[in-house]
Amino acid sequence: MCGIIGFNFKSNNEKIFSATFHRGPDNTSKVEVGSFTLGHNRLSIVDHNDLSNQPMISECGRYTIIFNGEVYNHGSIREKLKDKYNFKTASDTEAILYSYIEYGESCVDEFRGMFAFAIYDKIEDKLFCARDRLGIKPFVYYAKDGKFIFASEIKVILETLQRKPEVNQEAIAQYLHYLYVPYPNTIFQDIMKLPPAHTLTYQNGKVEIKKYWDVENYKGKYSSMNESDIITSLDNILDESVKMRMIADVELGSFLSGGIDSSMILHYMQKNSSKRINTYTLGFKDAKKYDETSDAKIMADYFGTNHTEIIIDPNAAELLPKMVSHFDEPFGNPTSLLIHELTKETKKLATVALAGDGGDEVFGGYPRYEAILIADKLKKVPKPLFKIASTFTNLIPESSSGNHRLRRIKTFVNSLSKSEDEMYEDWISYFSDSELNKLFKECKSYKHIVKDTWNSQNYTDGILKSSIVDLKTFLPNNLLSYGDAMSMANSFEVRFPLIDHKIIEFMTGIDTRYRIKDGQTKYLMKKILKGKIPDNIINKPKLGLNPPMGLWLKKDLKRFINDYLSKESIEKRGLFNYEYIQRIIYEHETNKRDRSLYIWALIVLEEWFRQYID
Question: Which element (helix H / strand E) includes 93?
């Protein structure tokens, strides 16, 4: 895990290369080659040899690579190429470099892992870049007025430009709607995110972007497989995925929540290790309803792990500016604060951990997937009846303590009168279009990425549709975004075995009835784990890693409401109608609506403006 930096001009500004030192504190280097300057911050995980430092130049001297991430199958790639190329290291960086020389742009098809890299060909004066299939590793770039700049983080581009581009008004609306700025946008005009599963080529002043992989290409590929063969095949793929992510030359462990995703990973880690596994669990000092330490201990005791409980009492007010400075743009999922604290404390014990992110999207774990099945059964009910029902459900007060269940039920009922694409958009968004029109003094139109992705799929299976929508939107823009930003803030690497692309291809190819079957979410997971872990862990309800936002808004964040959302601050910013913000706060404080994440989103946005614009 590292930071990459590149631009097509020369600069003596050393701050450019130190801006992402946190991503790679073990080595910082740069080279000037051809028309490009390439830099790298290294976090050494595999092969501590100095020859593995980057930028790395091919033996022929023609190609230079900078790379962030891990390619887990680099050993087998090296084995295929070793008779043709003289490998000097055991690093995955060198395997990527010679794969490009051998296979050209199709080299990305060979890689299994998480990556963002750039390879410069000085003879052709051509830069080739790529981002992994799911978007685990970030890649942002700027291409304007003959300048091309790319990096792992936006702050590098800002430092390189020595100025701030215009704020992207569409991105502000998208952020308030989704709680994140979706690719290809960033919060800045002219700074873009390379989408997952895409390559970028820069040559002769032109940018060319191509898609190299799409999960939709695997729909129905294994639809004829029976349940027994599916379980056997999936068991083997999962085992392989976890095993290859256990390779490291530093201390490695696993995050353990006591839920089925992390428990499944621990099962395979134990199977593939002769040593005791290190496990780490997050707990809260004064918020037991959000705490899973007791379930995690059951699993830790069951497998006899070296278990550490990390009990935190996070101060959201202190963490807010840190979080914003590492995202470089507004980001509204407060779970990011917990990941920051978890990786900060775990870094004292290890440098790498496996995590279960993506299990819900791939295996059918979210309650909204069950809601898809319910909505499908209600299709024959006249939609006007749901409009009538929603007038009554809207009268039900919601909890402001951080329990979002009532809010979700009301959203579900209200959405049943809408088309499927609008319904799903409602389920995973926050400020609605009508609310944004009331909030903004002048609301800009914006792209609805969830609805658009839903409508781009030409089949009727709601479970598969929703899963693919989440894999293309919610997962990379939300979960993986904070997974990278918050772990890298602490020079810590997190690996995600449940979203190996081989697993996703397989799960997309089988019949979707195996995601939710016999009333069980994550049906295949539970079948595989039956008899291998305690039944109470297999059957426990989903909790999720959520912070006590309701408590925070009443304690740590109260002063931010009084300051950032004051009449003076709102009118000075000039974007929003103060009266509507007052209404949101009133609804929350009187338990009429659960507005905790809405208020948090507005606080984060104002913090970003103060750090980056004012």
Answer: helix 92-103
For helices 260-271 and 227-244, give the axis angle rounded to 10 degrees: 70
Catalytic site residue from 2, 107, 129, 443? 2
Q: What is the 3-state composition of the chain as percent helix, strand, coil, each rounded to the nearest 5?
A: 45, 15, 35
Confidence at residue 608, expressed as pLDDT on a 0 to 100 scale: 98
- For residue 115, give the DSSP letter: E
Q: Identify any residues that bridge with 255 across adjacent strands, giving them in sequence order.
A: 280
pLDDT in tens, 362-386: 999 999 999 999 888 888 887 778 6
- Can you tell me the distance from the alpha carbon of 372 to that of 383, in angstroms, rounded to the nearest whole number? 16
CA distance 468 to 466: 5
Asked if residues 353 and 346 have their Cβ atoms less than 8 Å apart, the reply is yes
Higher pLDDT, 150 or 590: 150
Per-residue tokens: 14: 């050393």
β-pairing, 56-57 vs 36-42, is unpaired
| pTM for the whole structure | 0.95
CB 407 within 8 A of CB 591: no
- Paired with 141 in beta bridges are 150, 192
Buried b (16+ CB within 10 A) or exposed e, 11-41: beeeebbebbebbbeeebbbbebbebbbbbb
Query: Tell me: the pLDDT tens digits for 255-297?
Result: 999 899 999 999 999 999 989 999 999 988 766 666 788 899 9
Cα 110 to Cα 135: distance, rounded to the nearest angstrom: 17
Q: For residues 263 and 288, is the Cβ–Cβ distance under 8 A?
A: no
* Residue 2 a catalytic site member: yes
User: Residue 381: its pLDDT value, please?
Assistant: 80
**What tokens does 207 get?**
């940018």
Output the 3-class SS for 45-66: CCCCCHHHCCCEECCCCCEEEE
| Contact (Cβ atoms closer than 8 angstroms) between residue 356 and residue 498 | yes
Going across the sheet that includes 493-495, the strands are 306-312, 278-284, 252-255, 352-354, 493-495
Check pLDDT > 90 for residue 389. Answer: no
Question: Has residue 413 got a pLDDT over 90?
Answer: no
pLDDT at 415: 79
